[in-house]
Design goal:
Helix content: 55-70%
Distance between the termini: 69 Å
Transmembrane segments: 6-27
Keywords: Membrane, Transmembrane, Transmembrane helix
Radius of gyration: 21 Å
Largest sheet: none
Order of helices and strands: HH
């Protein structure tokens, strides 16, 4: 039977892998441009420099 450290390491790796998989699955979708209000972050310096 594996010792406590090995069990904790396996559990930790499984948990981190699950969270990483969930993050990739949730944020892998393209953003809908109709839901974005205002300029993109890359355009903000041009807009601020107008004032």
């Amino acid at each position: 039977m594996p010792d406590k450290i090995t069990i904790i390491n396996v559990f930790w790796m499984a948990m981190i892998t699950g969270m990483l998989t969930a993050t990739v699955a949730l944020y892998d979708q393209k953003t809908d441009t109709s839901k974005v209000y205002g300029p993109y972050a890359s355009a903000r310096t041009a807009i601020i420099s107008q004032y």
